Amino acid sequence: MADTAALDTPTDINSNAAKTVAQALNGILADSFTLYLKTKNFHWHVSGPHFRDYHLMLDEQAGAILATTDVIAERVRKTGNTTLRSIGDIARHQTIKDNDAEFVSAEDMLKELRDDNLKLVEKLREAKDIADEAKDYGSSAEIDGWIDGAEERAWFLFETARKG
Amino acid sequence: MADTAALDTPTDINSNAAKTVAQALNGILADSFTLYLKTKNFHWHVSGPHFRDYHLMLDEQAGAILATTDVIAERVRKTGNTTLRSIGDIARHQTIKDNDAEFVSAEDMLKELRDDNLKLVEKLREAKDIADEAKDYGSSAEIDGWIDGAEERAWFLFETARKG
Amino acid sequence: MADTAALDTPTDINSNAAKTVAQALNGILADSFTLYLKTKNFHWHVSGPHFRDYHLMLDEQAGAILATTDVIAERVRKTGNTTLRSIGDIARHQTIKDNDAEFVSAEDMLKELRDDNLKLVEKLREAKDIADEAKDYGSSAEIDGWIDGAEERAWFLFETARKG
Amino acid sequence: MADTAALDTPTDINSNAAKTVAQALNGILADSFTLYLKTKNFHWHVSGPHFRDYHLMLDEQAGAILATTDVIAERVRKTGNTTLRSIGDIARHQTIKDNDAEFVSAEDMLKELRDDNLKLVEKLREAKDIADEAKDYGSSAEIDGWIDGAEERAWFLFETARKG
Amino acid sequence: MADTAALDTPTDINSNAAKTVAQALNGILADSFTLYLKTKNFHWHVSGPHFRDYHLMLDEQAGAILATTDVIAERVRKTGNTTLRSIGDIARHQTIKDNDAEFVSAEDMLKELRDDNLKLVEKLREAKDIADEAKDYGSSAEIDGWIDGAEERAWFLFETARKG
Amino acid sequence: MADTAALDTPTDINSNAAKTVAQALNGILADSFTLYLKTKNFHWHVSGPHFRDYHLMLDEQAGAILATTDVIAERVRKTGNTTLRSIGDIARHQTIKDNDAEFVSAEDMLKELRDDNLKLVEKLREAKDIADEAKDYGSSAEIDGWIDGAEERAWFLFETARKG
Amino acid sequence: MADTAALDTPTDINSNAAKTVAQALNGILADSFTLYLKTKNFHWHVSGPHFRDYHLMLDEQAGAILATTDVIAERVRKTGNTTLRSIGDIARHQTIKDNDAEFVSAEDMLKELRDDNLKLVEKLREAKDIADEAKDYGSSAEIDGWIDGAEERAWFLFETARKG
Amino acid sequence: MADTAALDTPTDINSNAAKTVAQALNGILADSFTLYLKTKNFHWHVSGPHFRDYHLMLDEQAGAILATTDVIAERVRKTGNTTLRSIGDIARHQTIKDNDAEFVSAEDMLKELRDDNLKLVEKLREAKDIADEAKDYGSSAEIDGWIDGAEERAWFLFETARKG
Amino acid sequence: MADTAALDTPTDINSNAAKTVAQALNGILADSFTLYLKTKNFHWHVSGPHFRDYHLMLDEQAGAILATTDVIAERVRKTGNTTLRSIGDIARHQTIKDNDAEFVSAEDMLKELRDDNLKLVEKLREAKDIADEAKDYGSSAEIDGWIDGAEERAWFLFETARKG
Amino acid sequence: MADTAALDTPTDINSNAAKTVAQALNGILADSFTLYLKTKNFHWHVSGPHFRDYHLMLDEQAGAILATTDVIAERVRKTGNTTLRSIGDIARHQTIKDNDAEFVSAEDMLKELRDDNLKLVEKLREAKDIADEAKDYGSSAEIDGWIDGAEERAWFLFETARKG
Amino acid sequence: MADTAALDTPTDINSNAAKTVAQALNGILADSFTLYLKTKNFHWHVSGPHFRDYHLMLDEQAGAILATTDVIAERVRKTGNTTLRSIGDIARHQTIKDNDAEFVSAEDMLKELRDDNLKLVEKLREAKDIADEAKDYGSSAEIDGWIDGAEERAWFLFETARKG
Amino acid sequence: MADTAALDTPTDINSNAAKTVAQALNGILADSFTLYLKTKNFHWHVSGPHFRDYHLMLDEQAGAILATTDVIAERVRKTGNTTLRSIGDIARHQTIKDNDAEFVSAEDMLKELRDDNLKLVEKLREAKDIADEAKDYGSSAEIDGWIDGAEERAWFLFETARKG
Ligand SMILES: [Fe+3]
Ligand SMILES: [Fe+3]
Ligand SMILES: [Fe+3]
Ligand SMILES: [Fe+3]
Ligand SMILES: [Fe+3]
Ligand SMILES: [Fe+3]
Ligand SMILES: [Fe+3]
Ligand SMILES: [Fe+3]
Ligand SMILES: [Fe+3]
Ligand SMILES: [Fe+3]
Ligand SMILES: [Fe+3]
Ligand SMILES: [Fe+3]
Ligand SMILES: [Zn+2]
Ligand SMILES: [Zn+2]
Ligand SMILES: [Zn+2]
Ligand SMILES: [Zn+2]
Ligand SMILES: [Zn+2]
Ligand SMILES: [Zn+2]
Ligand SMILES: [Zn+2]
Ligand SMILES: [Zn+2]
Ligand SMILES: [Zn+2]
Ligand SMILES: [Zn+2]
Ligand SMILES: [Zn+2]
Ligand SMILES: [Zn+2]
């Protein structure tokens, strides 16, 4: 994802600062696609008496995550940098782990996603500071909503994973 | 994606036949996510006088591809098998190639996607025959629409990539 | 439901073949109304901590079943035959059993409906072959969607009835 | 449909009174499903120069009848009783007769449904008095609308069946 | 909430009778706001494996309660009296108890709301008789729907709080 | 509006009782059309600093009145009687007075409509008792909503016509 | 409907010319309300095998007529004149005749309305010329659409009243 | 409509097979435009007591036919062939006959369209077999729906043209 | 399209004048269907880097043309004449030429349609004068909008066909 | 705004006549933008007890004015001329005066806008005659609606500015 | 509202900092419910010539305030703390005063709400700083919108309460 | 735009600070209207093979700019200052230049707008800092979105203006 002259979009943001924001956003984009896939994985393979309830909740959460991805990628483009390009590109940048287990209990699904979303919150909070530093206010304001969304998912998952 | 007793959904389709359909569909699912990402990649990085027109066309095509993924995965689940689970799982099953080049001309984008979609048509036509063989009529009928969609994308990309 | 001259709709399908399709579809129609009523029965009488979740799921499934009934009946009419006429007519043709028990546990509800839907899938798959035999492509294509719907209901019911 | 301890919903309505309302409503529910089926029967088998007009009118009327059934059943449940459970249960409680004739003229269809709807109005008016007696105001108010609906259907059918 | 000359709306209902209806409705309004807050309290603090299902059910129930409040208050105004004015006014008129406990189990939440809604049904049934006595038919008809709503909430809560 | 054999709709309501309800409803229909026209008259000719506010309020009120007229007329028809037929028929049955003055002040408009609506409430309350007497529950329940509507219009007009 | 200083709206149209347009439009308004009522009369009292078809057609036509009335009245007001004020005002200006007959056959209803609508077309065509003369282009353009509407109603009524 | 190198869309379907499908589809397209025009012709010129009912039915049928035309043409284009180009092109390929008679009775209109639609069903059934032969699954699946539509039109027309 | 007694709709427009308008409108109708088909032809066969942009523009323009056809035909019918009946009828009346060429460049498509639309504008302007002459204001007003539409299409096509 | 060869759109309207219409329309466009800004100015700065009522009315009026601007400009372009290009261009062509006063009373706002709208009506009526002269029927018909809109605004403003 | 181990939602925000934000938000929540009730109080009891205008404005403002409450409460929950539980809890935390006066003039209503909203703005601005301090960006961004909303209400109320 | 006592809206923001924000926002408002007009200018006068694509893009961009103007102006008003009043006021405050050239090539249009939007981004980023300084959080948050919008427009324009 190095910057290439051919793709520069002009911007009045300092170009080094913009590149740092881009790096942070591209990392978040990789994790968002990873978390989207994992949430869909669990949406497809969940089982047990809460099947429909969790199947729907995971679909809603996957949808909410996916809805952020185009915005993230285009924030990077609008500020003069390039973004992710492929499944392989995601794999090289993701910090959230895949879970390819044959069987995961519903409870373990909830807990793993809760932790992944909290990890995403942390990365978003760091990116927020980087964006503010760069005076990249357009990105900074979007991040606020992404944090709220990830905190909401973590709350739902945390409460659901608890003993009643 | 081997079949696991714990996740078997009961079906009256012969279980070996169903597994063969599942293998075909899971391969198509991996390619669909790959093609989705590549189409978004080009949606984000396209440049030149047709920018808006191609940017919109690629977004529409990416949206059409993504819309098939949940249906593909759930056809596999409804017929007693398991489906993809992660970015890594996609990477291991994809046959369509990533394109991580720093710069791709608009014309090359159109041609590469045209070829990828035609390749997808071929795989879908094979999966159709496998599904019919297994009397998996639910999957077979869905495949018809996915073929039409991929052929439409190939037509648009082919005509657009031609010299006027 | 014997064919009566007074109600013949003209069709180019061989009339014996059409009558065979009609017999298969009328049997499926009787079972669909029976399953609709049983699913509503359980929607009304379900109880326990998953009440709302199952109450909603059963309403969605009942709605999906009912939505097929007018289409089934009119496929029979469009191909020159007559269809069901009354509650008694349904009773005489149904193969899915009524359940008039005073109390059924939520878990038993799910399992019974799962089995009924799988039985319906089998009958639909047989009807599909009959329709293809008769070159009644209009009916054949509709059956594909009904199979997918019944398989989806069976999947939801199967996963929900499992131990978490 | 006897009351069973296991399914009691608590209510402050006197339980004998509530049971009497439930019996009236369950009878109306059986007749409503019967009338729905007969109206669809005629919607499917009507013939002659007014085909489309009557086909549509009967579909609208069937839809209006069906729309009352879930409300009827749930009024019974909300006031501590149980409701119908199956096609057989409907058959045992219906007072409106099935019509399984091979051929019914359009005019006879209109007249038979007119009489059935007027009979339903009578039963609804009796149930209204029973509900008011039991201070079951929730049911009583719903009955008002069902009476208006049945009177509207009877009016349409009566006027249409008359000599112009 | 004493009547004040300055705010009289003219009405042909006997003014003492109207005032009695107003007193009943204002009491119900206070309890409705109290129950709304308690239902939102539980919507916010519920926990355990049914979190999403109950969180949604409680939100729907709170929404249904809130939707009655403006209608209640304006029925009082339309018939020449004054209604509630503040949080303190609610506190002085409420008969449903607050629950300020640090922790309430999901099961206890359901049971407490079930009892509160049944209590509300009783008050509504009394208000219905008062409104009918006063020939305040506009209020009387609205109460019918509020009773049905509270009975529906009680039914959902009762069934959900039962052992499966 | 005498009853004519040629137009009788069958009904199980006692025919004398039904005719008495019809007479009451036809009178209310005449007054409703009269009040509709007067409200539109004022909507068209109102003037002064509150022009837009009153112009809109009067249009909303006229719309609410008009919305009741088809329902009133069809309640009469559904219960076996005939209803109004012309402008002249309205003129012969109206009890609310026309106002053909060249100029009416905004304040006088509000006061006159307030009194007309209160008069309509009185007539509706009488018709309610007649309908209940006749066990014409369909009409009785509709009247409840018409009373609420007229009381709401009277409240708005009363408050607006007061000194601030 | 004489012009009154107190209600003059300023306009650059010659005031005599505007008054002539107003007289024409007010006459059309009276006839439009008359025709609306007659069309509703027939909508309510029509009978015979085409009941639903004609009942719907007459409701659509009545709705189309009513939709023009507010526009007519406000064109008069916008060009500095006053418009109709009451049922009595309509009665004094209408040229289309009331029909208060106890019984009108469906065929006679169609023919009478056909003639009334054609008469309305004539008056509209005259008003068009008066408006053009006065350079009242706003009114003139609206009249075009009203003519088309009345011609459409006349066409439907003419064709329907013909022997098949 | 011969194949021209300049317009080839790439496809993996055998090109001779694809051309055979294209010929069948182009013939159906010509007949669909012809039937569309004839159905509109009758929609415009129908007369008699069922005018509105048939006028509407014919408009719905014409709309349903037209809705297939763009899909037919684009199936031909997506599979590497060219489609119809003009009114003259339609005239040269149509097998359904024009009807330019000055007057056609309503009954004759219904019968002629019934026969035309049944003829279309036959051609569609043949095209289906050709498409399946060519493994042109996208076209084959679309044809299923077109058959159902034409059978539905034939049913409506057949029943309506019968003696009541 | 000669006038036939059997199909006369009564109108107060002079019948010779109406016939002249009808002849003009029927000619425009033939050209509109011709232009619709040609625009669809180009929508289907266009090629080159602007494929999607032109494909969409041509579809929008074809849709706009088609939307006028039913209105044109029904204006003729409402004023007592008959209109087009078939593909052959269109062919006999069209003045816009078919283009059946195997290949047309995108630029030539734009230029040909630009000229055809300008030709249509001319014919519409002539028809306008004929309609005004006949005092056929309903047709005249519709023509205004059709002129605007054709001028808009010509503008788009003209600007697009120019060198940038 | 002189005509430039490079921007000519072909038209069959006489080019001098078209240019005269263009001049009139461009003047109206300048005044429309001016009036839009002034109406928004007053929407933003209005004060006093009618604040919300006038704030909303002025927003609706500003919205109605703005909605005409694109249509005006494109009428000029469709008939072969050029239109306004900038704020400065508006300033050079506007005849309606700016009002930059620090404070304007609500009453003065209403009166000034009333006069401005009446002035706009006058200019529109002149443009109408010019367009008719040029046989520019597309523009002429649009002007009708703009006149009606400006007359409606003037009526609202006039009545509101009057003493009650 | 002390923190309780049983209800902790995990968060990466420093827990003391989060608790401080929670305290600020809970105070704002109490004031928001208080202001909602007071605004509804005035919506119900307002009187005088601006009745409808103010009645609507107060309803819109009450709706806007209520819309923030669920978001406020859930921000507290998402960041690991507990929120308000009852009417009594609101009463204990509110700083905005109740107004239980028998009569409040419209002008006094506007002024009191203007001051209350400005007070709310102040508290929101303080909470913003606390949230920023805690790096609770999700809350901080929501507060921005709540400030804008309260400032808008204050502006409307201030301008309306002024002498015109 | 000096502050005038008569128009002060109360605010707790320091009044000097608020005035500084107002000055910045009013400058941005002037430039936004200027850019809106220029973008519409180019939307109207663009020419060449990308006509429709650019015509649509420029309309979308103009719409996005206009959508910000009312919000900008009202932020100024809500914080106690006055905003722009006229076309002349815009002209006096705009820093973006008008372009009144007779002919501008499509490519030059794109480049000029790209630069203008980037200039707007700079001014917005400065205003953001001013608003934050003044603790005017309502304005500050709105600016974030306006920056994102302008950056998106610049990106589209930049990429489109590049050599493919
Ligand atoms: Fe995007
Ligand atoms: Fe899914
Ligand atoms: Fe049906
Ligand atoms: Fe239900
Ligand atoms: Fe309210
Ligand atoms: Fe009606
Ligand atoms: Fe109006
Ligand atoms: Fe197409
Ligand atoms: Fe038509
Ligand atoms: Fe435009
Ligand atoms: Fe919530
Ligand atoms: Fe605004
Ligand atoms: Zn985008
Ligand atoms: Zn699913
Ligand atoms: Zn049907
Ligand atoms: Zn329910
Ligand atoms: Zn209200
Ligand atoms: Zn009706
Ligand atoms: Zn109006
Ligand atoms: Zn297409
Ligand atoms: Zn039509
Ligand atoms: Zn445009
Ligand atoms: Zn929530
Ligand atoms: Zn505003």
From TrEMBL, chains A, B, C, D, E, F, G, H, I, J, K, L:
InterPro entries reported for this sequence: DPS_DNA-bd (IPR002177), Ferritin-like (IPR012347), Ferritin-like_SF (IPR009078), Ferritin_DPS_dom (IPR008331)
Keywords of this entry: Coiled coil
CDD domains according to UniProt: DPS
Source organism per UniProt: Stakelama tenebrarum
Family: Belongs to the Dps family.
One of the record's GO molecular function terms: ferric iron binding
Residue stretches making up the Ferritin/DPS domain: 23-158
Coiled-coil boundaries: 96-130
Name of the featured protein: DNA starvation/stationary phase protection protein
